[in-house]
């Protein structure tokens, strides 16, 4: 009887994000001219899934009390890379996909190595590596172009059995293959622990450095999955600076909405996924209410501002002011 | 190098050099090296006209980097630079469209808009204790949203008034572009504030150990808030100058200033962890970045190469000077 | 008197930190099926001994044998491996993880490489039941638990490691009375199961109830081991005192009882669960000491006066007028004129990379500047005065303060506040880790400042200093003032007895306020 209460307490952030998403999605479809059709769901999920992957990536790093401001650029870089590599026969395409994922993982690993072993602050490090990744993307695609294996692209962005969006199924598969094992492994627990209280984690002899390194590397991989999907949607690669920045920013918004603490140690990638879907839906609400789309960036900015300010309420519980300066 | 070897080395230097940070010396050495390499490439590199032109271009970055330095000295960071720059430029140009009063108030209005952004940053960081990176990213997004709504998504139509063009490109002192004079004035004021006022001491104190500064009876939150709004104002002023230089504002004019501003501050030896750094270093960093940009563009290095080089330079400099101490 | 052969034996263990001896050829033998209590005043070497045993620090010399075999532990994990588990005073739990996650943290059960949550939960419930805390739900998040429950989880976590030797370092300090009696039952059961228990506590009644034998530490060595109950409280106190006196203290002026208004007065101050109903007053010219074992609320009391704590109840009066101080900035200004020499000079007193000059004038810049611009001539002359007054040894004013010796750093911390000429000076253990010569100078300075009319509230973990420097000493115990010692009453015996909340014969005679 009491059992569910603890589960709720543990999953509070995730459930809240799910709630926000459901409410927003109902408002969205209720006011959508076409209503709740398979098409509307497919389009919405395809847009949402992109951000969901990047938000999952951000979650892994944020859980360790770090931040990755290069996720958007890894996303763009892998998009450009995929537009070269994910082509040709089935075998070639498979190798291409593997290469794209591996380069995403490499980008993440570089971030992790610099932050953990170079002892640099994650913020500046990932700003700088983000610039490098964007530069490489620009080298790969000075102008938008390229192509992708369209059979694969259509299969992954279409619908299964005419109803279920394939992108959502892929998202679910990624959650099962990457997030679930990670969060239930010793490393995953060490990642949570190091974000929550690094001293206590160290005292308990947990593998902190290894856990952080794996978190950064997986984050790169997840951003690369996002980059692959971007290529599947657009059939091209484009080194779009603004889009990379926007995805980094939105990933933070999604993470915050998804109940992941920016101070680390609390939250889950599932929450971040709902946060991403909710953030997308909120942004699209403007359309169904016939607002000028020009208001969308401002609206998204204000939502983000509001979300990050909510975290400040913990301040009122601080009784010893010296704790402000930890 | 061990401490004693360093001491022996520095003891042989003249007093002026002895006080300088090794990072600042390195930055100046790099400037000389770049000039030397440039002169091998083309003899016009050492001509006064070219150098003056570089100094003028550097002064826009210099004004923006001044604000960034202030914030980094506190141990924070300001990622709202791109749209604070753009907003300052756009709002100044917009104000100028409202008759002579508008023209007269164009520059202050632009700067004021930037200060408003900075004030929001400062309140978020100092009073709400939200990490600086997050607040400033959010205000950047809000500022961008406001400007998109204002311009309707097109590049802004208002052009910069003559006063702004004069500020950026005119000559009050023969031979010295006004932009350079302005940077020199702002730089002198910054040096004065950082070294001679209690505000400056508080900035360094907070950057080193906010807890100790607070226990010394300094209102650390107010200092942080003021520093952020000054930084916002300086970014916007940089935008005003840029708009004057280009005769108009444009949508993403600030994007290319965030990274160079951080790079310039870090290259100049200011610790990314806060509390350590001199304005002289930032000047060196700004000039270094500007020369690097210039040489890369003379060599027709594509944008891609420049991005990669900025990124690598920041990481390498940080690995040399900005590592957090090993805690075990 | 040991029926069983000792499980763990420590012989001739010494440990120095810098120049300070923390342990000096200490011996200890721990037998299975016994509860062994360790007693001693602040800095007697108790905590260092435990750290050596638990693999946190390595001893400089001496040997440890476990089951007759010589051992040395490179890390806490290695000590755990050997069956030695410590419940530390500072909580080592991870707040955002569940109770079960925390209990199995160092070696979670795994299936196919993933943590087996069913098994984990079973282990956690067993451990909680063994610790007598079966009411704690294994899925609850640690940060949602009250402090006393957290401490129970800490004990359960230790038990889940199946220790042969369990060390409890002030493990009951945050527990409620009901929990304490539960824990005692658990400890007695563990003893009967053959576990060796090492128990450190400042509560004499607990030791009396639990321990089979006691070892008293003094000056880093064990001075006596006796069967519990074979010594009276005053005999125990007798064993704990007798530190050699190495300091000379300035003469204390005669003080007559006066009814002049105190400069600083606190009435019924309470704050969270750390301070309870504290009333005290300090008059001009008086040095009032805060005594007691470390961590009884002394630091919080000083911070409370200085405006750092939120939610403080009670009244603070300065010169008889009620004031409300909301920040150090308010505490230091003219009408109040308060200064706090903080606990840790490296993180709270100084900005180590900044210069001696910048640090010295940092707290007084509002006095030294006009319209925010620093008057450098005035700054220089005041700094010169201070450097002379305190005889600060520095190669120059423009070198980083971090380059000075510990004693000179501490002088800078004090000088930086004297530049404001404060009328109320709060000191938080200011002589910790500094050399004897500087300490001596500091005692002279304190008296000089008091004679010049300052009101001084002085917390020290060193009883010597309290005896030598203070006109009155207030002894804190669990966040309340247990005793006030005046003038000749301030003896080592009285300080230790009241720090342990023992009513010795002497204590009984002068029993008055508090208690």
Low-confidence stretches of chain B: 1-18
The biggest sheet of chain B, with number of strands, parallel, antiparallel or mixed sense and barrel status, is:
2 strands, antiparallel
Looking at CATH, the homologous superfamily of the largest domain in chain C is P-loop containing nucleotide triphosphate hydrolases
| Content of β-strand of chain B | under 5%
**Helicity of chain B, as a percent range:** over 70%
Number of strands of chain C: 24
Largest β sheet strand count, sense and barrel closure of chain C: 6 strands, mixed
Tell how many strands the DSSP assignment of chain B holds. Answer: 2
The best one-word shape of chain B is: globular
Q: Looking at the chains present, what oligomeric state does this protein adopt?
A: heterotrimer
Rg of chain C over CA atoms, rounded to whole Å, is 25 Å
What is the CATH architecture descriptor of the largest domain in chain C?
3-Layer(aba) Sandwich
**CATH class (first level) name of the largest domain in chain C:** Alpha Beta
Overall mean pLDDT of chain B stands at 87
Major beta sheet, strand line-up of chain B: 1-2
Morphology of chain C: globular
Between the first and last Cα atoms of chain C, what is the distance in angstroms? 37 Å
DSSP strand (E) fraction of chain C? 15-25%
What keywords describe this structure?
heterotrimer, B: 328 residues, two-stranded antiparallel ribbon, globular, C: 515 residues, alpha/beta, 3 domains, six-stranded mixed sheet
Could you give the topology of this structure?
The complex is a heterotrimer of chains A (326), B (328) and C (515).
Chain A: H1 3-10, H2 12-31, H3 38-63, H4 71-85, H5 90-116, H6 122-140, H7 150-157, E1 159-160, E2 164-165, H8 166-184, H9 186-196, H10 198-203, H11 208-234, H12 241-257, H13 269-288, H14 296-310
Helix pairs in contact in A: 2-13, 3-8, 3-11, 3-12, 3-13, 4-5, 4-6, 4-11, 4-12, 5-6, 5-11, 7-11, 8-9, 9-11, 12-13, 12-14, 13-14
Chain B: H1 3-11, H2 15-19, H3 22-41, H4 48-73, H5 81-96, H6 99-127, H7 132-151, H8 162-169, E1 171-173, E2 176-177, H9 178-196, H10 198-215, H11 220-246, H12 255-267, H13 279-298, H14 303-321
Antiparallel strand pairs in B: 1-2
Chain C: E1 8-17, E2 20-30, E3 35-39, H1 46-53, E4 61-66, E5 69-71, H2 76-81, E6 84-87, H3 99-103, E7 110-111, E8 114-115, H4 117-130, H5 147-160, E9 165-169, H6 177-192, E10 196-200, H7 204-210, E11 213-218, E12 221-227, H8 233-240, E13 264-271, E14 275-282, E15 287-291, H9 298-305, E16 313-318, E17 321-323, H10 328-332, E18 338-341, H11 345-349, H12 356-361, H13 365-368, E19 369-370, E20 373-374, H14 376-390, H15 406-418, E21 424-428, H16 436-451, E22 455-459, H17 463-469, E23 472-477, E24 480-486, H18 492-499, H19 505-510
Parallel strand pairs in C: 3-10, 3-11, 6-9, 9-10, 15-22, 15-23, 18-21, 21-22
Antiparallel strand pairs in C: 1-2, 1-4, 4-5, 7-8, 11-12, 13-14, 13-16, 16-17, 19-20, 23-24
